[in-house]
Amino acid sequence: MMNYVRQWQNTSANKYIILGFRIIVGGVFVVAGVSKLIAPLAEFIAVADAWGILSDPWLTLYAWILPWAEVLFGLGVLI
After folding, report:
1. 54: region left, alpha or beta (phi > 0 left; psi from -120 to 50 alpha)
2. What span, in angstroms and rounded, lies between the C-alpha atoms of 69 and 26?
3. What is the pLDDT of residues 33-70, one digit of tens each?
4. pLDDT at residue number 13
5. Dihedral sign, Cα of residue 25, residue 75, residue 6, residue 1
6. Which DSSP category does 60 fall into?
7. Strand, helix or coil at 58?
8. Angle, CA 22 vertex, CA 17 and CA 28 arms, to 5°
9. pTM
10. How far, in Å, CA of 23 to CA of 33, rounded?
11. Where are the alpha helices (DSSP H) in 1-79?
12. Residue 23 and residue 50: Cα distance in Å, rounded?
């Protein structure tokens, strides 16, 4: 199975397909993170609070960490 995956990755056309997907996925993460960083923090906390998943102390931590994580992961996929 691994040999098949390596053969598939080594063809030149597939390298461009993988590169295209990396640009799309990484770009989506970077744009999503930057859009959250630009918006006021209170607005993002209000939206995340409406989901009803996290309590207040965790919600603030989530609102601080998530945008930076999205940008860093997106840049990691792009590189």
Report:
1. beta
2. 12
3. 999 999 998 898 898 889 888 888 899 899 999 999 99
4. 74
5. negative
6. H
7. helix
8. 130
9. 0.77
10. 15
11. 2-10, 12-38, 41-51, 56-78
12. 31
